[in-house]
Specification:
This protein is of the alpha+beta class and 195 residues long. It contains five helices and five strands; from the N terminus they run ααααββββαβ.
Amino acid sequence: MSERKPYATDLSDERWALIEPVITAWKAAHPSVSGHQGKYQMREIVNAILYQSRTGCQWSLLPHDLPPRSAVMYYYTAWRKDGTDKTIHDLLRFQVRERKGRLADPSLVVLDTQSVRAAAGVPKATTGRDAAKKVPGRKRGLATDVLGLVIAVVVTAASIHDNAIGTALLDRVAAATEPGSVQTALVDQGFKNSV
């Protein structure tokens, strides 16, 4: 197989070296059920996921020189389901923070929410209406550190109050960081003192 031309979304050697141990450990713990162990290079699987994520293309429209959609979606789904994606995200977040001279976990987080309109086909059971912003759809709650790196995310119906989202975010922040590391949470007026 000839080497393909790189895409702008491809992992650099340095970035691949950071996450390769996680992927290799996962692969060793999950032998192939199809009998095609090692047919696709794991780096190319990750490159395909990054390509789809960055471009927003449909899975079926992945370029032909990347692994096939079925293989890429298999790993993407498996990693989301078992938390491997979160493990990689947290590893990279720790690396960025440490390079900036900070501890791996933040002592301060910033919480905010955003309501977005839901697409026409989204089930009504998962949407609502944000009374304050008059937006029908969903609400995303985000907890970031002062560098803007994501610590936790919550997605709810837009009708859910910011306090409930704030509580859920703080629970996820506590689960994603070392006990006692986060001391302060900055919020806007949409959150009440009960968070």
